[in-house]
Structures are given as C-alpha cells and as structure tokens.
Amino acid sequence: MTHPPQDTPRTGPAGAPSRRALIGWGGAGLALGAAAAGGAVAVTRAGDDVEPTAAASGAAVAFHGTHQSGIATPVQDRLHFAAFDVTTQDRAAFVQLLKDWTEAARRMTRGQAVGEGAYGGLAEAPPDDTGEALGLRPSRLTLTIGFGPSLFERFDLADRRPGALVDLPKFAGDNLDRSRSGGDLCVQACADDPQVAVHAIRNLSRIGFGRVVVRWSQLGFGKTSSTTPEAQTPRNLMGFKDGTRNIAGTETDRLKRFVWVDGKDVDENSAWMTGGSYLVARRIRMNIETWDRTSLQEQEDIFGRDKGEGAPVGRAKERDKPFLKAMKPDAHVRLAHPDSNGGATLLRRGYSFTDGTDGLGRLDAGLFFLAYQRDVREGFVRVQRNLATDQLNEYIQHVGSAVFAIPPGVRDKDDWWGRALFSEEA
Questions:
Q1: What is the pLDDT of residues 49-76, one digit of tens each?
Q2: What would the 3-class secondary structure string for the chain be?
Q3: Would the pTM count as exceeding 0.90?
C-alpha cells in the first residue's frame, strides 16, 4: 500500500486531524490480512463481480466498482447485518459519516486496520481499531450499504426518494416486531470468518457514535442461497436445498434484467440510484419443533421438491425444469416460481440463524431472508402476495422486516457511499 508522507496531516472521523498528526507523528495504519499471513492480498474482481475462484482463498474482494460488492459476489459463509437510526440533525455531519465509513470499509475489505490501528498510538486515547481482526485474512469481506425510507424524511431528501423504495404492505401471516424492523440505513457485512464480519460492523458502529445508533442486528451462518451455480446448493434449517435457480453473479443478462436499476427506471430526482438495487430483509422464524414431527412425504409436498436430490416433483435431478402443475397448488416452489409471478425474479443471499430459545423450550431459529431486485413492487411484493396460500406458512412466521435502497458502487478512491445522493455535482 502507499503511505502518506510523514509531514502530511492525516484525518480521522469527521475530518479532524488524527491524534498522531496533532503531535507530529507520522506512520501508516497496520497492514493486515493476507500480508500478515506472508502473502499478498489477492484482489479477484472481473467487471462488477468477484471471480468464483477466490471463494475459498480468503482473498480480498475489490471494494471499488460500478455496483456495490456483496450483491452478485459469490455468497460468503457468514453474515452480520445491522440497521441503524440516524441521531444527528446535521446534514454535514451525516455526510462526513458516510465518508468516514467508506474509508473504513475500503481498509477493512483489504484486511487492514481502521485508521491508525489497534495499538501503537497514545496510551491515553482509545485506539482507532478495536483489534479483534488483527492477524486475520480479509476472508472475502464485503460491506454493502443501504438507505431506508425513513432516511428520506431527513436532510431535505423527500424529493430524492425513488418510487421503487416503497413501504412494504402488511402480508398475510406477518407478526412483525418493531424492534427488529425498519431503519434509516443498513450495512450488510458478509465474510467467510464470522469475526471479520462482526469486527466490521462493530467498528462502523464505533465510528458512527453520536451520529447513528444500531437499531437492530442479525448474525447469520450457513448461507441458504448461492450466486455460484457450479457450487453445491445450500440447505436451509428445514433440510431442503434453497436457491437452486438463484441468479448467478456471472449471469450478466439476468442481473441487468432483475437486479440493477437502469436509467429507464429513474427520473431526474432519483437518477442517483442508477446502477444500484433494492434490498428486502425479512427475519423468518421457523417452527422447528413442529416441522421435525412432520412426515417426509408432507415435507416434500410442501416444498414441491424431494429432500435428498432436491429434484422438483416428477423430475430426477435438482436442476431439471419444474413441472409446476405436478405439484400441489399450495406448494412453495409452485407459488414462488417466476412463471407464477409474471416473471418476477429475486437474487437471494439469505442465511440461517439461531438466537437461543424463546423461553418455552423452542429454538428461536430460522431464515434471515435477503433479496435484491430492480423494483420492490415488481419483485418481492408481487411474490410475497402470491405466497399468501403457501402451505409452508403453517411452519414459518415473518417477525422482522426492512427495505432499503442500495446505491451504486464506490467507483474510485475519491468516491464515497451515497455521493450521488448527497452531492449536487454528482
């Protein structure tokens, strides 16, 4: 990496000179990750996505690009998702936060410490980095930011809210917990090492002190969807393969059609979303104990696939084209399939979760559903309404919900998260 000259003042959060700069100290931040392991950090990005060959290498995923990483990127093993509420009324302070977060994200995704590092600074001051990722590889960390509908009620942004960023309607069976729903903005941290993902959210939250506060968060494990079709299809906590025909990061035509916001989708005020996407996050509680007492035949009828191979009803292989009419009318696959929803297709990046028990001896476990789409109205809303008669609803309940506008990627070292929204010159 390139270090600033020793007489160049370095800046910390809110643009203030760092403590070392104030007392005339130079020096650069700590270079961690693959370099600490004795090798160079391998950035493996082709176009707008990372190459699947990096999936198991612990390499760094390129932070800069037309689209944010963490969407079409090959899905990592672990998740830490956090929604934040904005506490400052100062637009300039919030914009500076976005800049501070961008620089921290740029460093952490390379496997480097935040700011001047976790040690070596003034003993009387807290270090810039919390330190729990010292010596760990980048682990394909991606950080993806999104803006919730409520953010557009602040900072004179009302006329910049895209039409596709709708407040989700109430769906059949919803039992939403307000403390696990909504948020002015979100950060999705995905990595192959859970400590790397937690470290990222922890440090962004720390940087945001006084300007934002965590509203709710969710840890996830065991990815339930894949964006690399050659990989084995993951299984959810019900034991069934999930995301067999999910959009792959290499399917540029499908990404363009179903995921990325196009210039034709926006007007003058929402043009800042071109190249972005929309995210729906849903915390879905599974009634595990009831499901585990359900016969195999009924489980397979509910999903519309066999549990072993994952083949659709009447087919032999997992990836065989489903014959929807062979399934029961209320089978999950039949109701969720694009052919049953006017072609609506979502890119899913969900994770399993277990958060202890509910006090009645039942696991608080399920699916943290994450879906990216070009338009929430034509994507998730359409599909979820069609799932009102899904037989699977007997075994699941949506208990948390949020929707976010995901801005385009950070293009270069001078760009920052949300610049196109907050800067008139953009």
A1: 444 444 456 799 999 999 999 999 999 9
A2: CCCCCCCCCCECHHHCECHHHHCCCCCCCCCCHHHCCCCCCCECEECCEECHHHCCCCCECCCCCCCCCCCCCCCCCEEEEEEEEECCCCHHHHHHHHHHHHHHHHHHCCCCCCCCCCCCCCCCCCCCCCCCCCCCCCCCCEEEEEECHHHHHCCCCHHHCCCCCCCCCCCCCCCCCHHHCCCCEEEEEEECCHHHHHHHHHHHHHHCCCCEEEEEEEEEEEECCCCCCCCCCCECCCCCECCCCCCCCCCHHHHHHHCCCCHHHCCCCCHHHCCCEEEEEEEEEECHHHHCCCCHHHHHHHHCECCCCCCECCCCCCCCCCCHHHCCCCCHHHHHCHHHCCCCCCEECCEEEEEEECCCCCEEEEEEEEEEECCCCCCHHHHHHHHHHCHHHHCEEEEEEEEEEECCCCCCCCCCCCHHHHCCCC
A3: no
